[in-house]
Amino acid sequence: MTSSYVTGGEYLTPTSIHADRAGQRLEIEWADGHRTVYDFTTLRWLCPCAFCRGEAGQPGWLDSGPTLSEAQTQLTDLQLVGQYAVAPTWADGHHTGYYTFQRLREECPCPADEARRRDAPHEAHRAG
């Protein structure tokens, strides 16, 4: 699985995307067999939009460390954006964040991917 992650291709291709509203999680199956699961709170914290992340050198709303309300972490809709992203709509009306498949895969919260990210600087140091 590591080689397909590094070389690209199938690791960015979801074969199934399921928003489990009752379980409050987004489940993604990837073409290389990997499975990614985000709870809705984590997903909201990853919002990449300009309001949440900031723009023009200004910090975004999420940079202020807000306490998220129930409506801000309740998914009401999920739309595909072409063949590269999903756009969630939250119960508070927020809907401007496009989550690319690449970002969703790279930020996968599974233990194997967390270990890969944690160990990546050490791997680059050894290679250099």
Would you give an account of this structure?
The protein has 128 residues and is of the alpha+beta class. It is built from five helices and eight strands, in the order H-E-E-E-H-H-E-E-E-E-E-H-H. It has a three-stranded antiparallel beta sheet. The chain is globular, with a radius of gyration of 16 Å. The model is unreliable at 1-7 and 124-128 (pLDDT under 50).
What is the CATH top level name? Alpha Beta
- Uncertain runs are 1-7, 124-128
- Number of helices, where a helix is a run of at least 4 consecutive DSSP H or I residues: 5
Q: Specify the overall morphology.
A: globular
Ends distance: 23 Å
Given helix and strand content, the structural type is alpha+beta
Largest sheet: 3 strands, antiparallel
Strand order of the largest sheet: 1-2-3
The count of DSSP E runs of length 2 or more, i.e. the number of strands, is 8
- The quaternary state of the protein chains shown equals single chain
Residue-averaged pLDDT? 87
Q: Beta-strand level of the residues, as a percent range?
A: 25-35%
Total number of distinct structural domains = 1
The CATH architecture classification is 2-Layer Sandwich
Question: Could you outline the blueprint of secondary structure elements for this entry?
Answer:
Layout: H1 2-7, E1 14-20, E2 25-30, E3 35-39, H2 40-45, H3 50-53, E4 54-55, E5 58-59, E6 75-81, E7 85-90, E8 99-100, H4 101-106, H5 111-127
Antiparallel strand pairs: 1-2, 2-3, 4-5, 6-7, 7-8
Task: Throw out a few tags for this protein.
128 residues, alpha+beta, NE0471 N-terminal domain-like, 3-stranded antiparallel β-sheet, 5 helices, 8 strands, 29% strand, disordered N terminus, disordered C terminus
